[in-house]
Amino acid sequence: MNTNKTYAERAARHPNACAKQLFELMERKKTNLSVAADVTTKKELLAVADAVGPFVCVLKTHIDIVEDFDQDLVDQLVALSKKHDFLIFEDRKFADIGNTVKHQYGKGIYKIASWSHITNAHTVPGEGIISGLREVGLPLGRGIILLAEMSTKGALTQGAYTTESVAMARRNQDFVFGFIAQHKMNESDDEDFVVMAPGVGLDVVGDSLGQQYRTPHQVILESGCDVIIVGRGIYGKPDEIEAQATRYREAGWNAYLERVRQHQ
Ligand code: 6AU
């Protein structure tokens, strides 16, 4: 099962350019941590990106919550991604018909495809959403992940919905390289999807709005996910950002090493 191999082994064999780049980066930096930088000003976003940069494989953004967004923010984020060697993941959660998401991805104020290495999409509309995003993203070397399971209480992303979402990914492996999910999705040696798991926290079990947290140990070792996404657990304590990033990075990496060890 590819899930239990090292990130280096998975990088070496991966047919999808985006996944390959991500696994190589994870191995090089020894990190499976992604920080969700859900802050609402340009200054804060750049400060968080610069502070967590050395510790992460992926910086996750919600660009539409930044009140003073401008092109210079994007230019600076891209410069930081090169300085610190991380990928940018705009968490846009596309959810419309193929023709509309194509424009939302490539055009408008944000022009997401021009700077975000990875983005994500809901599967509610069916496979046309993947086709629309692919038209814009594939020529630029981008990849997407599908929301197969959400982290929140009462989420409808379960059962047949999840199964069908995985089937959609299997039919589109040139562009879809993984999932937002809570457990591994690989079922045979022929596939190697990257699972990025949000809802990760070491100190609390949830928030007042339905979010649910599990530990890096549960997510990586017990559930077979590949990347932990941590937001408030890291940027929520502005004076401790680097200390918390170090703590989550170690927890995530140790859980991964233990997983590899158990399957040798
Ligand atoms: O650690 P938190 O709770 O502060 O932040 C979690 C981050 C947020 C959410 O928008 C995102 O992860 N997220 C997602 C993603 C990444 O697609 C899906 C999901 O099911 N739950 C979730 O929290 O930026």
What are its keywords?
264 residues; alpha/beta; 8-stranded parallel barrel; 8 strands; binds 6-acetyluridine 5'-phosphate; orotate phosphoribosyltransferase activity; lyase; orotidine-5'-phosphate decarboxylase activity; OMPdecase_AS; decarboxylase
SSE blueprint:
Layout: H1 7-13, H2 17-29, E1 33-36, H3 42-52, E2 58-61, H4 71-84, E3 87-94, H5 98-106, E4 118-121, H6 128-137, E5 143-147, H7 160-170, E6 176-180, E7 194-197, H8 216-222, E8 227-230, H9 232-235, H10 241-262
Parallel strand pairs: 1-2, 1-8, 2-3, 3-4, 4-5, 5-6, 6-7, 7-8
6-acetyluridine 5'-phosphate is lined by residues 36, 38, 62, 91, 93, 120, 147, 150-152, 180, 198-199, 211, 229-233.
Quick overview:
This is Orotidine 5'-phosphate decarboxylase. This protein has helices at 7-13, 17-29, 42-52, 71-84, 98-106, 128-137, 160-170, 216-222, 232-235, 241-262; strands spanning 33-36, 58-61, 87-94, 118-121, 143-147, 176-180, 194-197, 227-230.
The CA-CA distance between the termini, in Å, is: 12 Å
Query: Which stretches are poorly predicted, pLDDT < 50 over at least 5 residues?
Result: none
Bound molecules: 6-acetyluridine 5'-phosphate
What's the helical proportion of residues?
A: 40-55%
User: How many H/I helices?
Assistant: 10
The percentage of residues in β strands lies in 5-15%
What sort of overall outline do the alpha carbons produce when their principal axes are compared?
A: globular
